[in-house]
Design goal:
With 209 residues, the chain is α+β, with helices and mostly antiparallel strands. It has one domain: Nucleoside Triphosphate Pyrophosphohydrolase (Alpha-Beta Complex), CATH 3.90.79.10. 26% of the residues lie in helices and 32% in strands. Strands 1, 2, 3, 4, 5, 6, 7 and 8 form an 8-stranded mixed β-sheet that branches. It holds the Pfam family NUDIX. Keywords: Hydrolase, Magnesium, Manganese, Metal-binding. One of its GO terms (molecular function) is metal ion binding.
Length: 209
């Protein structure tokens, strides 16, 4: 899929209405957790922003994902979009997403063209409400990874994400022995699940409509 075609396709769809929870539920791990859609809990949650950044590489649209280091926390080792928590000095969550992407993978603020946002997503284990900011850059980014925050940068072709065979099912085993059945996106043999998979599910629906 070409970048110009993708952005043209998304710009009108991001105005709304968005698939939101219906798309999220398709990739929700375990049993349906209704607390994810509790408006009161979302209103009290900490705020964060992630950046979905499209760019062209080898004539095809790509986006970057990052893998976290193993650290024993809630999201240890998981694959996610670049992003993080809102700081008081941030004027808005779009800035938060840009700032975090700059810090984590070296994307320059001025190169990011924002075209809209996906639906907010509440993450109960960490009590964050995440705003996914959709954007693109006209030139292929020169990524500079912060190795303290990011273990690996994963460049993903959009055409791969929207293939039906990319979505699979597995059981995630945690350190305490607990197993969680979950759908996931298979990205070059890597398991992309949880909140990131739920956001990708909404993005996939918008692209394919």
């Amino acid at each position: 899929m070409k970048l110009k075609e993708l952005i043209s396709n998304l710009e009108s769809k991001l105005i709304g209405p968005l698939p939101g929870p219906d798309a999220h539920r398709l990739m929700m791990p375990g049993e349906i957790n209704t607390s994810r859609f509790d408006k009161e809990k979302m209103a009290k949650a900490r705020l964060s922003g992630v950046l979905i950044l499209f760019y062209e590489k080898d004539g095809e649209a790509y986006l970057p994902l990052t893998q976290r280091h193993e650290y024993g926390g809630t999201h240890s080792g998981q694959i996610s979009f670049p992003g993080g928590k809102w700081e008081k000095s941030d004027p808005d969550l779009i800035f938060t997403a840009k700032r975090e992407a700059n810090e984590e993978i070296g994307v320059r603020y001025e190169e990011v063209n924002v075209i809209g946002q996906l639906s907010d997503l509440f993450i109960p284990p960490s009590n964050f409400k995440v705003t996914p900011v959709v954007s693109f850059t006209e030139s292929q980014p020169q990524f500079e990874i912060d190795t303290f925050e990011v273990k690996e940068l994963i460049e993903v072709p959009v055409s791969h994400l929207i293939e039906e065979t990319t979505v699979k099912q597995t059981a995630i085993k945690f350190a305490n022995g607990y197993k969680l059945n979950t759908p996931y996106f298979d990205v070059e043999g890597r398991i992309v699940w949880g909140a990131t998979a739920m956001m990708l599910s909404e993005l996939k629906q918008l692209i394919k409509i």
